[in-house]
Specification:
TIM Barrel
């Protein structure tokens, strides 16, 4: 008779952190957050030096004052929660993308034209991937209808779907935007689904009739702004080099004053010239009145003059940390702060997100350009190399979609497999990867330390809120998209 192999227990993969005097574990394989009780702490201490035989682990807990039954219950709970593992480990990698995954979000690039000439533009700048030559500059009703039909045909089983209007400058094709809203609503009535709209704009064309339409139709609005006049005008300029702040600021105030049904958000593109995060946040949030302000570094090759260098990114992280602590202090008092970078991360932590892909690009979300070409997301619209089909020519090419998703899967990014922050990052933005490395599936290795540090800050913030005002976290249940 063969001997039964002895069970050896060891610590599994987690990130240990403290907040408000309490200890927590961020469980990497599951994306869950686990409170550390005295019993859990005792068990982990016994495993600190390495694997321990099951009998010795139980004996160690008994020696610490637990009954044998309680010790066995502690070990069983920790194993089931993936806090500890045996020598065989776990066979639970991130889920593969299912066949015919239902679409939920459609980004309609209504035009590839823009009335600004922002120097860092990913669509028209030095790092552009678009190949718009010979293609229409403005989407027409035929393409828009086919796009909306494609969304609803591909979203069977979804209770809610979403359309985002994008550009170029979105509002340069405002008549089509109005048509899509009416057509989309009629389709939603036919299918019994809920349809939500949003748009991104540079704000220059926010006239009174436009604002009135957006408000009456509850359309979410994000305005691309880079702060107060000096920061905003550094790179967000018209073709003649004149800054756009003086045009945009009064229009934003009018929008916020009229549009009350949805929080109006600002999106800041950080560059080497625009890194004063705290000053920018407080201007946009408290002086202009945006409900939410989010920041993202420019997507560009490392040798561009506007690309943020490492030293500046360290300063950005310090300012992010200070704003995150402000956010925490607001949250403890039950108040909204408006720093959406924190809100977005906390929402994912609260949901226990463990991503197979960095985002929904090519999976639950696609972009469609004026020609009808389907792209993984808005950043790849009009790129022949990345097209996944055409709404006028049979829709999604399933083979191309599968190839794109396979390259972007966390399982193919071996550099990520030992990183504790991978459940939220999954290797980073596909577009950033292509611009930096020429491969949409390449992990964004230049950003790894920054992401780990930021995720660690957000874990601490989450723990502080969970201890001091857990009811605040209930709001993140409402942020979950309807399925």
């Amino acid at each position: 008779m063969s001997a039964v192999a002895e069970v050896l227990y060891s610590q599994a993969e987690f990130r240990r952190f403290a907040a408000s005097g309490e200890e927590f574990l961020y469980l990497v394989p599951s994306g869950g957050i686990f409170g550390v009780s005295p019993a859990v702490r005792d068990a982990l201490d016994l495993l600190e030096a390495g694997p321990v035989a099951a009998e010795d682990l139980l004996a160690g807990l008994v020696a610490k004052g637990y009954s044998l039954a309680d010790a066995d219950g502690i070990v069983t709970e920790l194993f089931q929660a993936r806090v500890i593992r045996d020598q065989t480990g776990y066979a639970d990698p991130p889920q593969e993308a299912v066949e015919d995954f239902p679409l939920q979000s459609l980004v309609l690039n209504l035009t590839n034209q823009c009335n600004l000439s922002c120097q860092y533009c990913y669509e028209y700048g030095e790092d552009k991937v678009a190949t718009p030559e010979g293609k229409p500059k403005f989407m027409d009703e035929t393409v828009a209808r086919a796009s909306v039909d494609h969304l609803f045909a591909s979203a069977q089983g979804r209770r809610a779907v979403h359309i985002t209007f994008f550009g170029g400058e979105t509002l340069m094709n405002f008549p089509l935007l109005k048509w899509v809203v009416e057509y989309g609503k009629s389709k939603a009535r036919e299918t019994g689904q809920y349809l939500d709209f949003s748009l991104t704009t540079n704000g220059t064309l926010l006239s009174e009739p436009v604002i009135e339409f957006l408000a009456k139709n509850d359309i979410g609005v994000t305005v691309s702004m880079d702060g107060a006049k000096e920061a905003h005008d550094a790179l967000r300029v018209f073709a003649n080099g004149k800054g756009s702040y003086d045009i945009v600021a009064p229009k934003v105030k009018a929008l916020i004053a009229r549009h009350k049904s949805r929080p109006i958000a600002a999106r800041v593109t950080m560059t080497q010239q625009v890194t004063n995060v705290k000053e920018i946040f407080h201007h946009l949030r408290h002086e202009l009145g945006f409900a939410e302000v989010g920041f993202a570094p420019v997507t560009a090759a490392p040798d561009r003059l506007y690309t943020i260098q490492t030293k500046k990114m360290d300063s950005v992280l310090d300012q992010f940390r200070e704003l995150a602590y402000e956010y925490r202090d607001y949250a403890v008092q039950g108040k909204a702060h408006g720093f959406s970078n924190v809100s977005d991360t906390l929402a994912e932590l609260h949901a226990g997100i463990n991503k197979s892909h960095p985002c929904g690009a090519g999976l639950g979300l696609v972009g469609v350009g004026p020609s009808g070409d389907i792209a993984p997301c808005h950043r790849f619209v009009d790129s022949d190399e990345h097209a996944l089909g055409n709404v006028l020519e049979g829709g999604m090419d399933k083979w191309k979609q599968k190839e794109f998703l396979a390259k972007g899967h966390i399982g193919a990014k071996y550099d990520c497999h030992s990183c504790w922050a991978r459940p939220l990052c999954a290797g980073g933005c596909h577009h950033e990867a292509f611009v930096r490395y020429g491969d949409t599936g390449h992990p964004n290795l230049h950003f790894c330390d920054w992401i780990r540090d930021w995720t660690g800050i957000c874990l601490e913030i989450y723990g502080d809120i969970a201890v001091q005002n857990p009811a605040f976290l209930d709001a993140f249940e409402k942020r979950k998209a309807l399925q």
